[in-house]
Design the sequence.
């Protein structure tokens, strides 16, 4: 529900957001573009770990590029986030509840977690950045 709520709020709040403000950093805060990319990337990475897989080269490159401005539009970033939420919800629907307490190593250091911990953190982290995104967007809209 947290993922679906985040998607609903982000889609509503980002409608009509000007592309030229996407990489603005008011008072040095993270840009809306970063938050949108980071929301997508973290959700993908945590779901990958929950499946007991390591990140691939594309995921590692995505991580490196999350804060780098590009010509991508607000609409495109929101659509990419929506697609990642769909993938996460699909993964949740087929996750066997018997595996929720199974160990999962996170990252190269194999930091210990569980499937449940990773899925919970995916939802919690998504909500955190959704809130940060909405505040940043509100500030930038009011500057216009």
Sequence:
């Amino acid at each position: 529900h947290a993922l679906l709520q985040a998607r609903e709020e982000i889609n509503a709040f980002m409608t009509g957001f000007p592309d030229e403000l996407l990489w603005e950093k008011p008072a040095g805060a993270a840009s809306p573009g970063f938050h949108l990319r980071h929301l997508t990337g973290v959700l993908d990475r945590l779901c990958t770990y929950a499946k007991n897989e390591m990140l691939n080269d594309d995921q590692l490159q995505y991580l490196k590029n999350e804060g780098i401005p590009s010509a991508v539009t607000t609409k495109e970033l929101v659509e990419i986030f929506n697609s990642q939420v769909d993938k996460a919800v699909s993964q949740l629907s087929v996750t066997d509840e018997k595996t929720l307490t199974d160990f999962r190593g996170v990252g190269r250091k194999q930091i210990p977690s569980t499937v449940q911990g990773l899925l919970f953190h995916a939802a919690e982290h998504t909500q955190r950045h959704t809130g940060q995104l909405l505040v940043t967007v509100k500030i930038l809209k009011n500057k216009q």
Notes: The mean pLDDT is 95. The CA atoms of residues 7 and 82 lie 6 Å apart. The beta strands are 103-106, 111-114. The first helix runs from residue 2 to 14.
